[in-house]
Design goal:
Keywords: GTP-binding, Membrane, Nucleotide-binding, Transmembrane, Transmembrane helix
Largest sheet: 8 strands, mixed
Family: Belongs to the TRAFAC class TrmE-Era-EngA-EngB-Septin-like GTPase superfamily. AIG1/Toc34/Toc159-like paraseptin GTPase family. IAN subfamily.
CATH superfamily of one domain: P-loop containing nucleotide triphosphate hydrolases
Oligomer: single chain
GO molecular function: GTP binding
Protein name: AIG1-type G domain-containing protein
Distance between the termini: 76 Å
CATH class of one domain: Alpha Beta
Structural class: alpha/beta
Length: 302
């Protein structure tokens, strides 16, 4: 595989002869998502069975911009998109919108699977934020195309991943597994040879099952349909077109964010309506808080 080459929209690895900015319609398009430092780049390297993405152990991200590299699996081209820190709360807006836009361009006309990477036994509040950001960046419907990848599978020892998932007391993780249709698998990113091929076979079996069950051949939304690259099919977008495109990216992100918040509020409202006892407790707590606040203000006034 030749080394990655720089492009206007992120970095492209020339792995299987596809040296344009749009994946072939027959390519299997995979987008790596998750919090910074969770092992996305290392997982991408394991999928491609070669070191293409820069990776090192640590909580800080190594990937500074969206990158794509290609490989093959059983004769089918694989198009893997690695992502920078756009799935965390502290992502800077202007840089974030550019990274989101580049991710869309590199994975157009839409990914078959989002690989949500998390470390085994380390699903934290940051991972929960990353799940929320996936919904905000791509839309809630993206969860129908999510497969959870647990890195550090070797830490299971003689135990099984199924038992770990079934017995975890992490409610956020349980909710995620349920939301994505119980699609998950484990990776040892230090594996080589037969072990590496076997874990890739497990992943591809999950992907194949997802493709069969999915109503759509791949995930798409209005922004994917509106990407300039998809319309032109070549890398000749002007600066003005790119600026207008990033404005659409920002508008799309804000719309998805409002939609996600509305859905969350609706769930809370439904929960309260279906549980009058809980509603009463919340109202009492609110009244106590207001009484304390008024008392504090009066005290300070004197």
């Amino acid at each position: 595989m030749e080394g990655p080459k720089k492009s206007k929209h992120g970095t492209t690895g020339k792995g299987s002869g596809e040296d344009n900015q749009i994946a072939s319609p027959y390519s299997l398009r995979l987008v790596l998502v998750g919090k910074s430092g969770c092992g996305k780049s290392a997982t991408g390297n394991s999928i491609l069975c070669q070191t293409v993405f820069k990776s090192k152990l640590g909580a800080q991200t190594v990937t500074r911009s969206c990158q794509v590299a290609t490989g093959t699996w059983n004769g089918r081209n694989i198009w893997v998109v690695d992502t920078p820190s756009i799935f965390e709360a502290k992502a800077k807006n202007q840089e974030m919108y550019k990274d989101i836009g580049d991710c869309y361009l590199l994975s157009a006309p839409g990914p078959h699977v989002f690989l949500l990477v998390t470390q085994l036994g380390r699903f934290t509040a940051q991972d929960t934020v990353a799940v929320r950001r996936v919904k905000e960046v791509f839309g809630i419907g993206a969860m129908r195309h999510v497969v959870v990848i647990f890195t550090h599978k070797e830490d299971l020892g003689d135990g099984s991943l199924d038992d770990y998932v079934a017995n975890t007391d992490n409610h956020s993780l349980k909710s995620l597994i349920q939301e994505c249709g119980r699609r998950y698998c484990g990776f040892n990113n230090r594996a080589t040879g037969e072990e590496q091929r076997e874990q890739l076979e497990v992943l591809m079996a999950v992907v194949k099952s997802l493709e069969k069950k999915s109503k759509d051949p791949y995930y798409t939304n209005d922004l994917y349909l509106d990407t300039p690259e998809l319309k032109k099919g070549r890398d000749d977008i002007t600066q003005e077109e790119y600026r207008c495109y990033l404005a659409k990216v920002k508008a799309h992100f804000e719309e998805q964010k409002r939609h996600w918040v509305s859905k969350a509020l609706l769930r809370v409202t439904n929960c309260m309506l279906s549980n009058t006892g809980l509603s009463a407790i919340l109202v009492i707590c609110l009244l106590i808080f207001l009484a304390l606040l008024i008392n504090l203000c009066m005290t300070q006034g004197h």
